[in-house]
Fold this sequence. Notes:
- The protein is α/β, with parallel strands linked by helices.
- The protein folds into five domains: 6-141, Response regulator (Rossmann fold); 144-244, PAS domain (Beta-Lactamase); 249-324, no CATH class; 331-491, Heat Shock Protein 90; 503-543, no CATH class.
- The protein has helices at residues 15-27, 41-50, 67-76, 95-101, 114-143, 162-168, 172-175, 191-202, 246-292, 296-324, 335-349, 371-388, 406-411, 434-439, 457-467, 519-531, and strands at residues 6-11, 33-38, 55-59, 61-62, 65-66, 83-87, 105-108, 147-152, 157-160, 184-186, 204-213, 218-229, 235-244, 331-333, 354-360, 366-369, 393-404, 418-427, 471-477, 481-491, 513-515, 538-540.
- The strands form five sheets. Strands 14, 15, 16, 17, 18, 19 and 20 form a seven-stranded mixed sheet that branches. It has a six-stranded antiparallel sheet with strand order 9-8-13-12-11-10.
- Adenosine-5'-triphosphate is lined by residues 380, 384-385, 388, 427, 429-432, 436, 440, 445-448, 453-459, 482.
- The site of magnesium ion has 5 residues, from helix 12.
Amino acid sequence: MDKTQIKVLLVDDDEDDYILTRDWFDKFPESEFQLDWVDSYTQAMTAIALQQHDVYLVDYRLGNRTGLDLLRAAIAKGCVAPIILLTGQGDQGIDLEAMKAGAADYLEKSQLGAPLLERSLRYAIERQRAAQKIREQAALLDLATDAILVRDLENQIIFWNRGAELLYGCQKEQAIGKNASRLWQEQDLQLFPTALSTLIAQGYWQGELQQITSSGQEIIVESRWTLIHDFAAKPQSILVVNTDITQKKQLEAQFLRAQRLESLGTLASGIAHDLNNILAPILMTSQLLESQLEDARSQRLLSIVITNVKRGANLVKQVLSFARGMEGERTLLQVRHLITEIRQIIKETFPKSIEVETILAPDLLAVLGDATQLHQVLMNLCVNARDAMPDGGILTISADNLTIDENYAQMHLDAKVGSYIVITVADTGMGMERDVAERMFEPFFTTKEIGKGTGLGLSTVLGIVKSHNGFIDVDSQVGKGSQFKVYLPAVAATVTSENEPTEFLSGNGETILVVDDEAAIRDITQTTLETYNYGSTASFMVN
Ligand SMILES: Nc1ncnc2c1ncn2[C@@H]1O[C@H](COP(=O)(O)OP(=O)(O)OP(=O)(O)O)[C@@H](O)[C@H]1O
Ligand SMILES: [Mg+2]
């Protein structure tokens, strides 16, 4: 105990008793105790309300009230300082009642002396300080964001902090005494026996657990278990600290997927770039020959070459576009028009067993984008939805405004705080297994028969959406259907504009410098330019 003054208030209606008590105080070996005295119940209540004393010594007899009445009234008023009850002879039998009411101690005056009184005062204060410390620690545990709980070896909850209430959606009053298996479910039950034997052997276990809360939410927690022993060193209970890492894990998975897509994209784009360099001179040469070889047979053959080279070039363009991101035009456009257009195409071309619904927010914001590319995005998603519903179903296209806040932005790698529009393409088709959903955005990944799908649809969709600074969210359930949500940054404007057609212009003998690292491309570009009336050109090799 430190040497600060301890103020004691004696509540006793007998002055002789006060004098006697004061004498005992004078005999205490340490002089840090200071004694005050009041002689009535009312004065005592006033003094207690002022909270200026560290401990109260209360006589049982207080006129027409008792010390027990005072004790109960003081505790009801929130008094936390210890109250020691004093009784004369003949008041026995009330000690138990006094303890139940919250008395720190119960002393018989007839047996009291200076040493006993001093010890009782010191113990009362020490106990009160210890209790205060425990209260503070419990409050600290409630401040922690982690779920902290203690369960006994039968899995019954005996401690449950505020973090646990929030994580598992269950109040302390309901959780205490319940079996943990009724508050959440472990997904990986096989892990449990090993975890428990490690805990028993080493006193500690740490690992990741996938759980389902009673509201059906799937969570991942980093769990730390510590074995608590009783006085006889027998294992008694388990202290569990669970940190919610669901969001972190989801971001990690998103990041890994993005990285895998990026490296696949780099690989595909490398091949596509080389192919492009092979196809470009073939196309240019054929087009040039077309205008020079006029016999019908050559024209027919050249047209076959040109059509096929164009097909090849288109495929290459598609690969390059998702790998490198697309440039494209950026005009202000209303997605509403796009969706109406798509709806029309679907109605005319999709099987009648597929019902189409469109739900558009009336005040839908505009986006800055390339109409052709966004058309392609929606068309790809709708065709996938059609393919997922061979026996028919409902295809819903909806569009809405959405404000993304800090919380949401943290959950998705590419999301930023701000205004978005979200276009949802939902089907009631076959849905996807986890392994398909994991890989659907990979270039050339398809589950369709050979010749039915190239597996470039979704990679192109992702490429376009990314180049529009947007992102995609997919939700799919096997047998129930899939939902693709495309988020695009919104612009606060409602103007629309059309793409203007481009025209091929002839030159007037201007000189043009052609720079390319491929000799064939340099040559053919030079020849083409000259054919279209541009002046003599020079070409250079660059590395
Ligand atoms: N709405 C959907 N429902 C169920 N599975 C889908 C859906 N959309 C995509 N998938 C799955 O993702 C795979 C990849 O889709 P993606 O559009 O990239 O290629 P594809 O449709 O197979 O071929 P392509 O689009 O090039 O013709 C599909 O083969 C299919 O397994
Ligand atoms: Mg597709």
